[in-house]
Design brief:
Blueprint lengths: L1 E4 L8 E4 L9 E10 L2 H8 L16 E8 L11 E4 L2 E3 L5 H4 L10 E2 L11 E5 L4 E2 L6 H4 L5 H11 L7 E5 L3 H12 L3 E6 L2 H9 L4 E4 L5 H9 L2 E6 L4 H9 L1 E9 L11 H7 L2 E4 L5 H12 L7 E5 L3 H9 L6 E5 L1
Parallel strand pairs: 10-11, 10-13, 11-12, 13-14, 14-15, 16-17
Antiparallel strand pairs: 1-2, 3-4, 3-8, 3-17, 4-5, 5-9, 6-7
Bound molecules: nicotinamide-adenine-dinucleotide and zinc ion (2 copies).
The site of one zinc ion has 7 residues, from helix 2.
Amino acid sequence: MKAAVNSTYKGKLEISDLPIPTVGVNDVLVKIAACGVCHTDLHACHGDWPVKPKMPLVPGHEGVGVIEQLGSNITHLEIGDRVGIPWLYSACGHCEFCLEGKESLCLSQHNTGYSVDGSYAEYCLADGNYVVKIPESLGFSEAAPLFCAGVTTYKALKVSGAKPGEWVAIVGVGGLGHLAVQYAKAMGFNVIAVDTGVEKLALAKELGADITLDFKECVPSEAIFEQVRGAHAVVCTAVSKPGFEQAYKSVRRGGKCVLVGLPPEEMPLPIFDTVLNGVSVVGSIVGTRRDLQECLEFAAQGKVKAIIEEKRLEDINDIFDDMLKGEINGRIVVTM
Ligand code: NAD
Ligand code: ZN
Ligand code: ZN
């Protein structure tokens, strides 16, 4: 099968011919139709984070396609089912986190396109218990980004604790952020979108943002306090330390700053302001299978739609270059 393989940190990915994986009793083999390109894949290939990915690596954790083979233990799915393979490749199912419905915190989890090979390939192996079915009304390419960007931002908005009618700022309107804006509107929030460039901010406006701010033209936190007295919640998907500083400073008293983006840097937190303002700072990591089902349902009902551009797997190095420069509007999806 054709696959894009990364062999050295910051090296180019190569299109290689790999054997089709063999199905174990708990696995499904998915013939991949499309896979979204997440900034996490770029972090993986660059070895940006303290926990390193397997190497060589087939990245990709927004893969969607059709089940072609089933392990003998997988009885709730059928050959021909349309499914997606999320970042949470598998979890143990019996630790305190799994039992509490917080499987994305499981210490024994595997991650697609990180600790195991992912979906930048014609076929991808998955744990049958952790794939999620795609609603019939959704096409493959539009469904793919929901398996990470969608579920992550939908979950982060739930974690934010914001209520309908409150102000929520989305800092970073890239692959994740452009979906965050839409989920936030669908959940009844007033939305401020922060990023840079006419195209990204125009897209945010089109997707329902009530206020858009260009971080190169203003100081977003100051503008947010001037215009709405601070945000009740902020979801930060920016891949930049200054983005996180601005996100934190945009929260009004008693509000919550939800950290989602993963630049490999520290975020300085002023203790005095955090205490006196009663501000919460919380991390949010992808979502559970149930979050994913809910997030897909929003799209099936037409309330959320990933803005995508389809490219070929062979274009992956150019896609990464554009992503590093911040030049992608919405999500790139590679089709097989
Ligand atoms: P992306 O490259 O598509 O989007 C990032 C956006 O941030 C870009 O539009 C960029 O212009 C913008 N940005 C940069 N600096 C900014 C600033 N100072 N203020 C506002 N915006 C700024 O990336 P993506 O695929 O959306 O991923 C974003 C981050 O989220 C990555 O670090 C990724 O690893 C992480 N991520 C986290 C989770 C999670 O579960 N927490 C899940 C998926 C991705
Ligand atoms: Zn991702
Ligand atoms: Zn567990």
